Structures are given as structure tokens and as C-alpha cells.
Amino acid sequence: MTALIEAPEVPVPDSNGFPPGYFVIRSIACNRNWDVSGDSVEDGTDVILHPEKEPSLVESRRNPDANNQVFYVDTSGALCSRSSGHALDIEGNRVVLRHRRPVSLPYPNSYSHPLPRFKYSPESGQITVEFSCDPAYLPPPAPHSAWQDKVYLLTSVPKRRPRNFLDDASEFLTMNVASPISTIFGAPRISNATPEAVAQVDIDLRENEVIEEERAETEEADDSTDKDRDLRMLRLDKATQNTVGSAARNRRRWEIIQLRNADRRTGPI
User: Fold this and answer.
1) Nearest alpha carbon to residue 79 among 140, 70, 186, 178
2) Distance of CA 236 to the CA centre of its chain
3) Helix, strand or coil for residue 59?
4) Closest by alpha carbon to 167, among 202, 232, 218, 110?
5) What is the pLDDT of residues 225-250, one digit of tens each?
6) CATH number, residue 44
7) pTM greater than the 0.85 cutoff
């Protein structure tokens, strides 16, 4: 009689905090979903934030046209888009689709490199990005370890409505009437530098490093009528990553909503 040989148990791949199967990723701050822009399958296509296209979470009821808002973690641990099957990568500070590429030398480089790991924390609601090499992909002999002292977080970016006549009139009155009067009575002069003026100052910081810590109060508004918002990666010092206001902290929080094969039971069995 032939003895049965048990097959070795295959470990379940790590889903990096995301649920198994398919899911959508929703911004807590702006209530928009991750969305592969234009439902494109091209390499380097941006992942943006867009209003929900399909409210049903039951697979059989969903419109397949909304699959560009659905993601999954594959067996290698890569976060992927359902509509194209391509993995996600970081390009600069943008989340993009990435086609599989051959190895090119010197490895790694901006064209050919290991895919980053996107990791979700249910406790904080944050999505971090973990790299196995310097994401700046500096050519040798430039490599250094400073990148390992950073935390890489994903955030939504607020979008203000365009300035109008009332905004300009209010700024004019503040600068030319209210400020001089307050100075006469001994109050200190208040700086009225606009975000546009501040942007002209030559500060040696990357845009995505300033995006939260230096955001002016006027830039916190997210009142644009545009449907889309930007999804960006922040590069932060580990020691100061939490020294932000509640609005900025909320922009870093995400809700992961798993798709289902059937309706949930709502009554007794």
C-alpha cells in the first residue's frame, strides 16, 4: 500500500495590511476613491482621487467600468490595479501604474528597480510606502543611507477654487486699509504674503516635503468644484512626522473597503 505524502503547507502571501481579494481605497478627508486616471493601462499613468463610480460592493452588481477604482495585493506583495492588472509604483511623488520591466544596468535605476511595498495600518488609517533602495535612484558612487531615515506616507492634496473678484477685493482691503489702521494703534504689522508669493522664495526643500508642514491656512481649503484631487507621497523625517494639525493628519487617512461576493445577512438565520 502506497503511503500518502502530505504536500508542504504553502504560506499565505503577506497582504501588507490590506484585506484579501479586491477592495477600494477611499480618502477620509475628501471622500474620493483611488482611481487610475482615464482608466488607462499605459505605463506611468497617474492614480488620482475621483468620486465613487460604483456604490455597490457586491461583485455581481458592480459595473465593470468602475474596475479602475478597484485594487488588490498580488502574490508577490505588490499593490495592483484590477482594471489593467499592472502594479503600482512611485514616480517622483506620484502614484503611477508600472509595467514589468527588464533589468537594466546599473541596477537599480529610475527605469528598472524593485517595486515598493504599499502598507496599510488599520490602526492609524495611514498608507506607508517602503522602498528596498533609495527612491531617488542616484547613479553610483552617489548612494547614501539618508533615505532610510525618512517615512514615506500617502496623502490627498486639497484644491482651492480659483480666486475671484471678491477674494482680490478682500486682500486689497486687508493690505491697504486694515493693516495701516492697526499699525497706527500700535498693533504689529501682519504679513500678508500670499501662497503664490511664498512659492517664489528659493527654499531648499522638495515640494512634497513642504506640502503639509508649510501649508498656509488659506491653502487648507478644499472647496474647488473640480471632481478630481491629487494623490501624493510625502517624504518626512521620522521624528517630526506627527507634528501636523488635524486637517493634515486627516488627509493621510484612508478607508479600505473590501468587495463581497454576496449581500450581507441583515436578519437571523
Assistant:
1) 70
2) 14
3) helix
4) 218
5) 999 999 999 999 988 777 888 999 99
6) 2.80.10.50
7) no
